Amino acid sequence: MGKYCGEIADAHTASHKSYDIFASNSVYRNAVCLCLLQIGELVNYLSEDFKSTYPQIPWQAIRGMRNVVAHEYGKIDTATVWETAENGVQELQEFCRQVLG
């Protein structure tokens, strides 16, 4: 998971962390969406015991974003994806560093 959080950060850096660029550049948007999909997919492999040990991480929301990206791609709200990538991923990346190594 940490790998994909880092790739989102790299995409932000390469695109100057701009919502306007994100909204208008499908390559940037698709890169972030694929990483969010992968993160959500990896959550499936975590045990319920593990997830309940770390309730501060919104596991259901992460999985929910994966489902939106995977199954409702034509209906994705760009602002919601941006908000997730901008505000949720950094916390998850830090969690991965500290807990998962």
TrEMBL record:
Belongs to the HepT RNase toxin family. Pfam families: HepT-like (PF01934). One of its GO terms (cellular component) is toxin-antitoxin complex. Gene3D superfamilies: bsu32300-like. GO terms for molecular function: hydrolase activity; nucleotide binding; RNA nuclease activity. InterPro entries: HepT-like, HepT-like_sf, HepT_RNase_toxin. This is DUF86 domain-containing protein. Keywords: Hydrolase, Nuclease, Nucleotide-binding, Phosphoprotein, Toxin-antitoxin system. It comes from Acutalibacter muris.
